[in-house]
Amino acid sequence: MAQRRSLAVPYGAPVLAVSFLACVATALELSVNNHAADFTLSTGLSPAISLSCLVHNSSQAEELLWYRGDGQVDLKDGNKVNISNICISPVNESDNGVTFTCRLARDKSVQVSVILDVQFPPQLSGEETLHVEEEKDVTLTCNSKSNPQAQSTWLKDNQSLTLQQSHHEVYQTSEVCQLSIRKVQKSDNGTYTCMVESRLGNGTRDFHLIVEDKKPVFPKEAVIAAVVVVTITVLFGIVARKDKFFKVW
After folding, report:
1. Residue 174 contacts by C-beta under 8 Å, 6 or more apart in sequence?
2. Looking at residue 41, what DSSP letter applies?
3. Please, are residues 210 and 131 in contact by the beta-carbon 8 Å criterion?
4. Mind listing the pLDDT tens digit for each residue in 73-91?
5. Could you report the per-residue pLDDT of 121-163, keeping only the tens digit for each?
6. Which CATH number is correct for 27-119, 2.60.40.10, 3.30.470.10, 1.10.600.10, 1.10.10.10?
7. How far apart are CA 216 and CA 212, in angstroms?
8. DSSP secondary-structure letter at 218?
9. Percent of residues in the chain assigned helix, strand, coil, to nearest 5
10. Where does the chain hold its CATH 2.60.40.10 domain(s)?
């Protein structure tokens, strides 16, 4: 009569399998402001915002590190273990786009990063008065910082500026708006206004362009040539009449 055979299973195998599954299920991880993965935090200009980093599934005390970009943030001793908080105060334009990262000290691959998206209305600056000689080129530079990026237009004497091909050129980026005028004429004299508009607000900046008379070109080369000719002529005259000079002396 055939006998049944059963597959022998090592006694410790089920225990090891269960332990492995438990380890996977309770893997150590971090969260910042309840986000377990990298994220972007949108905010406006404010007195302060807080970032809180928390260790999950930890069976021991874990030290945390904070970084602003590539630089490490100094933390007090009571603000490093299992939970750590940092405060950004005040929040300003320079914080826009900056990355803050919380890392596990003993394993820096365990980390969560947050990128600050600081939104603010247009802020304008630039040289207000420019003097330029007639028929020279000039560029009016309106420094325009804003987030989100604003739309810019130019006015002349409070009227919409009609751009003339080969005479005007407008260049704009997220931080600057430039108006270039080639071979300025007296008719270009006036007040130019850089007007910037965004959903968070508007801004204007005036630039006073003063076109001065064209200065006469000094014939430097001709003068130098004349001086050389005169000098050589005098020297030759002296050499030719040296005998008379010697008799006098």
Report:
1. 146, 149
2. E
3. yes
4. 999 999 999 999 999 999 9
5. 999 999 999 999 999 999 999 999 999 989 999 999 999 999 9
6. 2.60.40.10
7. 12
8. P
9. 20, 45, 35
10. 27-119, 127-212
